[in-house]
Every structure is written in C-alpha cells, then in structure tokens.
Specification:
Layout: H1 5-26, E1 29-37, E2 51-52, H2 58-65, H3 71-82, E3 84-93, H4 102-117, E4 125-129, H5 142-154, E5 160-164, H6 172-176, E6 180-183, H7 192-207, H8 236-248
Parallel strand pairs: 1-3, 1-4, 4-5, 5-6
Antiparallel strand pairs: 2-3
Length: 250
C-alpha cells in the first residue's frame, strides 16, 4: 500500500512538534541557593570560624525550607509558582564574635564556587543568601568578596540575586557584582519570606529575558541609633513606606 507523501510529511511535522514539546518540558530552569552568613563584631579580639552545614538531600531541603517565614521559604514557594527548580549548594555561617578567619572563609567560598562551576547540567542562576555585615581578616566587606568571586567564576551574564539583612553594610563592590540586591524592609525582620518571594519573581523574569535589572547605590550621611530603627514607628516608618510606594510603580 502506498502512503501519500502529504500524510508522511504531516506525521513528521507532528513528531517534530511532540519532540520539541518534550524537550521544552525537560528543560526547566535550574537555580542554586547558597551563601556565607556572618554578622561580625570586628572589635572582638578572637577570630570566628565559618562552618559549612552538611547538605541535605534536595527533597529534605525543599520540605524543611517551607516551614516558617524565612527567605528560603519565600524562594521555594515562589519558585514552585514560577517554574524554577531550586537546588541547595554550600551554606556556611560563623558566630557574631570577631572577624571571620581567612582560612575558614576561603574554604567555604571555594566550596560554594565549585558547586556552581561543576554543576551538571549547569545552573541558570544563583540566589546568594548573605547577611551583609561579614568582616573577614583580609576582606572588610566579606559579602562583597563572595559576590565578586561568584561573578568571576560564572561570568558577566550569569544571574546573581542577593538577599541581605536589614542591618547589612552594603559595599559598592557588592552592588557591582550582582544583578539584584534585595534587603529586608522591616525591623523587627517580619518580611523575610516576602523578600524571598520577591527574589524568586525577579530571578524568573531575568532568566526569561523579560527584565534586565539596573542598580545604583547612594549612601546618605545618616546614622540612626538602634533604638530608633523600628520600621513600624518613628523616623524610618515614612522612609520604608515611600520605598514600598516607589517599588510598586515599577
């Protein structure tokens, strides 16, 4: 029996469409989540040691991360809604006592960079969960050094989204070496999950090619005592409200 050529061509087209859909379904965006965290007291005489946490399985990490209202909980919830697959990589932390030792910092940061560089298949971006006030023996702005090395390793086009605590000391080098820096807006820190959701939305838009973030840093000569840093009252309340208003316009 002879099969019409038009029927064969139709089958080929259909097969191509199915293959394309299958490959598209398989190619989900992979985004890493990790970071080095320390809130340093540089006046304390002893050195703090950064210690890496044992990486759980991805399934455990996703399950445990949904508890509470952490940045990670926001990332996980947002990623699930936006079609991002999250993968945990090296996470390390140090106590608030003293500067972080060079040796422990470099070992943890090398592990994080290796996780990113050696991923197979490769990652499409990374969320760096940093505190923002880490001082290392050789690096007054430890968080900026984390972003610098990740950028150096992964190249200029690799999406890097950083989250920082409300009490971070933002260095220009940190802004230069990440695509987006998101800081908590509230003190007490009640909006951490919201910041994770925000980070997930921005990352999804970046990797989809919908947005290309641009950052600028301005540091006014203002120093506010800790007892006046409640963002729900006093001097900071209208500043935070205005930042939310401006953010909603864009």
């Amino acid at each position: 029996m002879r099969i019409p050529l038009s029927f064969v061509m139709l089958l080929l087209i259909f097969a191509g469409q199915v293959a394309g859909q299958a490959s598209g379904a398989e190619r989900r965006l992979r985004v890493a989540v990790g970071g080095l965290r320390a809130e340093s007291n540089s006046f304390y005489p002893s050195l703090a040691e950064m210690r890496s946490r044992e990486l759980p399985s991805r399934e455990e990490w996703l399950r445990d991360g949904t508890r509470g209202r952490s940045v990670r909980a926001g990332l996980i919830e947002g990623a699930a809604d936006l079609g991002l697959d999250l993968y945990p990589i090296t996470t390390a932390s140090a106590s608030f006592l003293g500067k972080v030792s060079d040796q422990s910092f470099n070992a943890s940061l090398d592990a994080l960079v290796n996780d990113l560089k050696n991923a197979d298949p490769p990652f499409d971006g990374v969320f760096l969960d940093l505190h923002g006030a880490m001082v290392v023996e050789s690096y007054p702005h430890g968080d900026a050094e984390v972003a610098r090395r990740v950028r150096e390793a992964m190249g200029p086009d690799f999406p890097i989204v950083v989250t920082n605590d409300f009490h971070g000391n933002v260095a220009p080098e940190l802004v230069e070496n990440c695509n987006v820096l998101i800081t908590y807006k509230e003190h007490p820190h009640l909006d951490t999950k919201e910041r994770g959701l925000q980070a997930a939305r921005i990352m999804a838009s970046m990797v989809a090619g919908k947005v290309k973030p641009v950052q600028a840093l301005e540091k006014p000569a203002i120093l506010i005592n800790l007892i006046h840093q409640d963002t729900f009252t006093g001097v900071l309340k209208p500043i935070v409200a205005e930042s939310r208003r401006l953010e909603a316009e864009n």
